[in-house]
Amino acid sequence: MIKGALFDLDGVIADTSVYHFQAWRDLVAKHFNATLPDDLEAKTKGVSRGDSLRVILDYLGETVDQVTFEALADEKNTAYIKLLDDLRPANILPGITDFIANLKAQNIKLALASASLNGPYILEKLALSDAFDAVANPAEVTSGKPAPDIFIAAAQALNLEPQDCIGVEDAIAGVTAINASGAFSVAVGDASDLSHAKLHFPSTAELNLATIQKAFEVAR
Ligand code: B16
Ligand code: MG
């Protein structure tokens, strides 16, 4: 029986991932006079702010000192928050409101397992704060995704074992993290590289609790 659902945020609850990459692109254009290719986005998805910046600097072949690194990360976050200005409940991805309602109808507890330090702020903007029983704090875990820490912390916050939970993700690193935590990985999205997920839906609109429950029981 599924007892908990551990949710990623960016790309699962709302499509804020496009804003993340837009903010990185603007930063790189301004400070390095360079353009980031589309395929770099997948490498920054689900990955912490600092790790995303490392991926980008690696791509650019740039090294910066610690002070500059922090300043760049801060500047990106300020720009990202600005892009979130108009975020509202209508921006919740298709199917997510119903999926949350179906989980709650089955007494399945909900926790946020996002790498984003802006998670609580975004939930508030989407009027979803009350829907979640717990929010795992990414600032309090040792290692970010693809390490399992945030999913383990989210299960713990619900007083559950990861094995009794599903994790829902859109990112390669996130699915790896769920699998390593022991939770049952459910991937959403059209990325062809989510094949390591136990179950995959092409989009959030297709998330189906009955299908997940069946697959979960078979796997357990
Ligand atoms: P922040 P998720 C992740 O959120 C994003 O996918 C990733 O692009 C971002 O770098 C990371 O959060 C950190 O976000 O800069 O807001 O702390 O997909 O794990 O919900
Ligand atoms: Mg995500």
UniProtKB/TrEMBL annotation:
Keyword line: Hydrolase, Isomerase, Magnesium, Metal-binding
Gene Ontology annotations of biological process type: carbohydrate metabolic process
Active site: 8, 10
Gene3D superfamilies given in the database record: HAD superfamily/HAD-like (3.40.50.1000), Putative phosphatase, domain 2 (1.10.150.240)
Reported cofactor(s): Mg(2+)
UniProt keyword Magnesium, yes or no: yes
Cofactor binding mode and count: Binds 2 magnesium ions per subunit.
Any GO MF annotation of the entry: magnesium ion binding
Main EC class the enzyme belongs to: isomerase
InterPro entries the record matches: B-phosphoglucomutase_hydrolase (IPR010976), Beta-PGM (IPR010972), HAD-like_sf (IPR036412), HAD-SF_hydro_IA (IPR006439), HAD_sf (IPR023214), PGP-like_dom2 (IPR023198)
EC number(s) recorded for this UniProt protein: 5.4.2.6
Superkingdom in the source lineage: Bacteria
Family matches, as Pfam families: Hydrolase (PF00702)
Xref: PANTHER family: 2-DEOXYGLUCOSE-6-PHOSPHATE PHOSPHATASE 2, PSEUDOURIDINE-5'-PHOSPHATASE
Protein name: HAD-superfamily hydrolase
